[in-house]
């Protein structure tokens, strides 16, 4: 059997005030929080890049403070995705990608392009966006994922379109947003957003068991049969895939522990 792809679980960011006491050691300075967090989980999703612009020295600093094998997922800047005509996003996209993200090198994981809940599926306009996604930036290969949050995307045509460009559809475990489990790229990206702060590991143990099982299935190149797909007729090619799972939003206080608990489960034989 071919070796499965690597599974990485993490949380959104590393700066969150409640973590100062719930996650980080006593008296750890904020300047050392990334150094600590990146040694507890193998990946972190950076939300700050959605709202703000960063320069190359910042990405160089992040890379230097994290260990070998660590991966940052970066949320694409909002000026790219929050627009009426996506086909006109090229300049903003190049500005974001050219800001120095390639300085992360091998530590650059997926670029997450998140769309507003009001953004509806327009096949022609969305294809124009997908066409504009570059394969490389300054010699560094890019992986792209799209998170859509309007029900109009939960149709076979969307999955077929995104698969054409080898882009991953984010699976959102969310109370309101559509759940689209179609595997359309060379990696899988899931955002677990229904945790609770009163659960020590963010999610209940049985749900963590479920997600660990799904992550292993994805890593083996298959598709879980208990998640909703939009394109029922198409099976993704069976091949090992990297899997990224992030504990986000609800239950954020316990999110790091959810990621740690999931990693423990997927590492078990």
SSE layout:
Layout: E1 7-12, H1 19-22, H2 33-37, E2 43-46, H3 48-51, H4 56-65, E3 71-75, H5 78-81, H6 90-97, E4 108-114, H7 123-131, E5 136-137, E6 140-141, E7 143-147, H8 156-164, E8 168-169, E9 171-173, E10 187-194, H9 205-219, E11 242-250, H10 255-267
Parallel strand pairs: 1-2, 1-11, 2-3, 3-4, 4-7, 7-8, 9-10, 10-11
Antiparallel strand pairs: 5-6
Helix pairs in contact: 9-10
Describe the structure.
The protein has helices at residues 19-22, 33-37, 48-51, 56-65, 78-81, 90-97, 123-131, 156-164, 205-219, 255-267, and strands at 7-12, 43-46, 71-75, 108-114, 136-137, 140-141, 143-147, 168-169, 171-173, 187-194, 242-250. With 269 residues, the chain is α/β, with parallel strands linked by helices. It has a single domain, classed as Protein of unknown function UPF0759 (TIM Barrel, Alpha-Beta Barrel). A hairpin with a 2-residue loop joins strand 5 (136-137) and strand 6 (140-141). Helix 9 (205-219) crosses helix 10 (255-267). The longest helix is centred in the last third of the chain and has 15 residues, at 205-219. It starts with 6 loop residues before the first strand and ends with a helix.
């Amino acid at each position: 059997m071919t070796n499965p792809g690597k599974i990485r679980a993490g949380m959104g960011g590393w700066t969150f005030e409640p973590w100062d006491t719930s996650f980080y050691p006593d008296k750890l300075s904020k300047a050392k929080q990334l150094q600590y967090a990146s040694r507890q989980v193998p990946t972190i999703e950076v939300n700050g890049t959605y709202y703000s612009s960063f320069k190359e020295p910042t990405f160089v600093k992040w890379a230097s403070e994290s260990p070998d094998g660590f991966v940052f997922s970066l949320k694409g800047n909002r000026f790219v995705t929050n627009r009426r005509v996506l086909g006109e996003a090229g300049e903003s996209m190049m500005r974001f990608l050219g800001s120095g993200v390639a300085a992360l090198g091998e530590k650059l994981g997926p670029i997450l392009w998140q769309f507003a809940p009001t953004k509806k599926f327009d096949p022609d306009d969305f294809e124009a966006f997908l066409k504009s996604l570059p394969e490389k930036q300054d010699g560094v290969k890019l992986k792209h994922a799209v998170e859509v949050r309007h029900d109009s995307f939960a149709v076979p045509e969307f999955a077929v379109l995104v698969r054409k460009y080898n882009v991953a559809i984010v699976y959102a475990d969310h109370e309101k947003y559509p759940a689209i489990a179609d595997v359309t790229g060379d990696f899988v990206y899931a955002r677990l957003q229904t945790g609770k702060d009163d659960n020590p590991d963010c999610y209940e143990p049985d749900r963590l068991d479920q997600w660990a099982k799904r992550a292993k299935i994805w890593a083996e190149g298959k598709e879980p049969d208990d998640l909703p797909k939009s394109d029922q007729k198409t099976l993704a090619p069976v091949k090992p895939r990297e899997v990224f799972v992030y504990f986000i939003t609800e239950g954020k206080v316990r999110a790091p522990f959810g990621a740690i608990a999931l990693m423990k489960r997927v590492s078990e034989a």
